[in-house]
Design a protein that fits this description.
The protein is α/β, with parallel strands linked by helices. It is built from 6 helices and 5 strands. The longest helix is centred in the last third of the chain and has 14 residues.
C-alpha cells in the first residue's frame, strides 16, 4: 500500500520488463539516475501484477520472455483498454507488422542514449 502511494506521488514513471536480470537492473539504474521513478518486472505476467498497483507513464519491454512476452503483453493491455506507450527491445529479428504498433523497437544491445531520447520525447509529449 505504501509503495503504491509513493509511486503515485512521483512523475515520469517507467516500468521495465525484461527476463534478463542484468538488463533490467542496468536500465533501472540508468533511468533512476536520470530522475525517473522506475519499477521492474521479470516478464509480462509480473508486469500485469505490478500494473494492478501502479500506473506507469511508459513501458520499456523485451519482446521475447517466458510466460508472457512483450508482444503478448501489448495485446493483453489493448484488450483491457490500457493504453500505455511501449518501447520494445529485442535481441531477435523484428516482425515488421508488429513494428507499426509500437513507438519503436530497438535491437539489443541497446544504445542507451538513443533509448533515453525515445523515453524523453515520449514522456514530454504525453
Amino acid at each position: 500500500m505504501i509503495f503504491a502511494i509513493i509511486w503515485r506521488m512521483k512523475k515520469n514513471k517507467i516500468l521495465i520488463v525484461d527476463d534478463d536480470k542484468s538488463s533490467r537492473e542496468s536500465l533501472k539504474s540508468y533511468f533512476e539516475d536520470k530522475g525517473y521513478k522506475v519499477c521492474v518486472a521479470k516478464d509480462g505476467v509480473d508486469a500485469l501484477e505490478i500494473m494492478k498497483r501502479i500506473s506507469p507513464d511508459l513501458i520499456i519491454c523485451d519482446l521475447k520472455m517466458p510466460k508472457l512476452g512483450g508482444e503478448e503483453l501489448f495485446y493483453v493491455l489493448n484488450g483491457k483498454k490500457i493504453k500505455k506507450p511501449i518501447i520494445f527491445i529485442t535481441a531477435y529479428e523484428i516482425n515488421s507488422n508488429f513494428y507499426d504498433k509500437a513507438i519503436t523497437v530497438m535491437k539489443k544491445p541497446i544504445d542507451i542514449f538513443k533509448l533515453n531520447k525515445f523515453v524523453s520525447s515520449t514522456l514530454s509529449s504525453n
